[in-house]
Amino acid sequence: MAKVAVYNMEGKEVEKIDLADSVFGVEVNEHLVHLAVLQQQANDRQGTQKAKTRSEVRGGGRKPWRQKGTGHARQGSIRAPQWTGGGVVFAPVPRDYSFKLNKKEKRIALKSALSSKVADEKFVVVDELKLDEIKTKKFAEVLKNLNVNKALVVLNDMDTNVIASAANIPGVKTAQTNEINVYDILKYDTVVTTKAAVATIEEVYA
């Protein structure tokens, strides 16, 4: 079992805890991690790009000149693709880019991402994150005490004071244990999580 230090909001070590190897000490499966990131990005795509084909462009119903005898190449419509203002060949249409990943594959990818952060010593555990009021400056001080800059802050419950205080800090994102995903874990340099959140993650993913 990996041992990690638990810090308080002043940045002082208060204890050490063991992390479950079944969640934070698995062998990293890079292929599934890649697929999980790819899936999230694909699912986020709107897929709303659209261009008109020659059948959809307005006008061009009349043949521009007779078939023979003009010296021009034969043309059937001024909205054919080779004309200015004509339709687009194989025009893009709205489509769904999303694809599915098995539950088991998602779990392995998430555990791989968490394990990689622990291995790189980019996983910081705090005994608790509590603020009496919404104050960005106070939360920025907590991150400074923990020597953390760009971070994903994982909370065990919906703490509006902490979430609102972190909202205006560039490079910081808050998430609850049921919202964490592979993309965010890898995107942010450090994962900062409460001790309670660690216990919940182990309970859900072990």
Automatic annotation (TrEMBL):
Record's compositionally biased regions (Basic residues): 60-71
GO process annotations (BP): translation
Gene3D superfamilies assigned to the protein according to its UniProt record, in alphabetical order: 3.40.1370.10
InterPro entries: Ribosomal_uL4, Ribosomal_uL4-like, Ribosomal_uL4_dom_sf
GO CC annotation: ribonucleoprotein complex; ribosome
Keyword rRNA-binding: yes
PANTHER family found in the cross-reference section: 50S RIBOSOMAL PROTEIN L4, LARGE RIBOSOMAL SUBUNIT PROTEIN UL4M
Subunit text: Part of the 50S ribosomal subunit.
Biological role: One of the primary rRNA binding proteins, this protein initially binds near the 5'-end of the 23S rRNA. It is important during the early stages of 50S assembly. It makes multiple contacts with different domains of the 23S rRNA in the assembled 50S subunit and ribosome. Forms part of the polypeptide exit tunnel.
Name of the protein described by the UniProt record: Large ribosomal subunit protein uL4
Pfam families according to UniProt: Ribosomal_L4 (PF00573)
Molecular function GO labels: rRNA binding; structural constituent of ribosome
Family, similarity comment: Belongs to the universal ribosomal protein uL4 family.
Ribonucleoprotein recorded as keyword: yes
Keywords: Ribonucleoprotein, Ribosomal protein, RNA-binding, rRNA-binding
Region of interest called Disordered, as start-end residue ranges on this chain: 43-80
Gene: rplD
